[in-house]
Amino acid sequence: MTSANAAGGQRETFTRNSGFIFAAIGSAVGLGNIWRFPGVAYESGGGAFLIPYLVALLTAGIPVLFLDYAVGHRFRGTAPLSFRRIKKPVEALGWFQTGLLFVIGVYYAAVIAWALSYFFFSFNQSWGDDPAGFFTGEYLKVGDPGVSTTIVGGVALPLIVVWLAVLAVLLLGVANGIEKVNIVFIPLLFVGFAGLVIRAITLPGAVDGLNALFTPKWEALKDLDVWIAAYSQIFFSLSIAFGIMIAYASFQRRKANMTSSGLVVAFANSSFEILAGIGVFSALGFLAYQQQVAVSDLEGLTGPILSFVTFPAVISEMPGAAFFGMLFFGSLVIAGFTSLISLMIGVSAGIQEKWGLSRTKAAVGVSVVCGLISVGLFSTTSGLIALDTVDMFANNVGVVSSAILMAIILIWVLRRGDMLRHHLNAVSTFKVGKVWLGLVGVVAPVFLTIMLVQKVWSVID
Ligand code: PHE
């Protein structure tokens, strides 16, 4: 279905409200929920982490999500166009966000490609007895300059498959591509992942894993880094202040209950995240039980190593290894892919609107350029190192600056807060009061600025 847009053309829209909600959940639920949240929570106070996490969700996550929605839904464009319609120079902020999407997309695709390979490796646990050596040595060939000769058997082929799939979805567009993919895959992901979690909590040792994750370390609450970790996790996890939720809201029909949808998305995302924490730590408890060690003695509880080294070790020990391996890596692929298409439609629709290109040209251009960079970077030995650096920059410094700028410019410099609030309230059943303005205009930027200063400081130091 389409609706007229200000430029005179027809703007593509989601065909139904559930399409928008599933797409937004698809973007939010991603690698961050499965491989980032459990480790972050564990390292940042365990059960006590839930407090800063909830505070961050309520004071910044949901308010900034509403801000994204208000901008996109009111101004009917991706971030650059919407900001431009608000005031010309602010377009630059939109391109900054688009730049972040591009950069994150490049490495996000690589992780999905790894998960895709591991989906197939699960059939007969190709990683053998040494998942660590297999991942970095045999698979990624870290430290082996001769890698180019083995590209096809390694990372390049799955990466190309991932980028072709992205291209296909972009070519199909919002209603036939993004919406359909999410309506099919998101329910599948929730059901499949729930099955995995149920299996994990019934394994011997699961309770020890859950104790390791949830036993509160209250002294962590005095640590600024723990609060920073909570805010970063919420921003990344909800995909906010990246321009994505602006783009998705701009594809939502004009009559749409925006704030209530936002609450559904935020709730689904956090529930999935906590479910993932339970599943991952139950499985780690099982591994510790098998190895006769304490959970705290296990290594590799976060990031790529958790998914591609520690988890394969767990899977090898499980009855029904092939099935559960495929379920785990299949979930990673789906969760990641539905986020990746949101990243890339943000970039391609932005370019399409700016230069008046056809959807096909923009989609092909963006997929080819991003895909080539991604294949170039990640099928060589520099992949793992690039991942860390880029992740740190884009997710900490990049998105936090973007959120601060957005709040200050929209609320304080241009004073559009009331207008955006009225827009949200005109279309939604869940009304936002002045409190919302206080949260996006004051609480969130103050917290985020403290975070940013502290992050930059720790890098310089
Ligand atoms: N929210 C996604 C996740 O949790 C990641 C993401 C970030 C997706 C930014 C799009 C934009 O993995």
TrEMBL record:
The keyword RNA-binding does not apply. It is found in: Membrane. It is a multi-pass membrane protein. InterPro entries: Na/ntran_symport, SNS_sf. PROSITE patterns: NA_NEUROTRAN_SYMP_3. Its main location: membrane. SUPFAM superfamilies: SNF-like (SSF161070). CDD domains: SLC6sbd_u1 (cd10334). The chain crosses the membrane at residues 20-38, 50-71, 92-121, 151-172, 184-207, 227-251, 263-289, 321-351, 363-387, 393-414, 435-457. Keywords: Membrane, Transmembrane, Transmembrane helix, Transport. GO terms for cellular component: membrane. This is Neurotransmitter:Na+ symporter, NSS family.
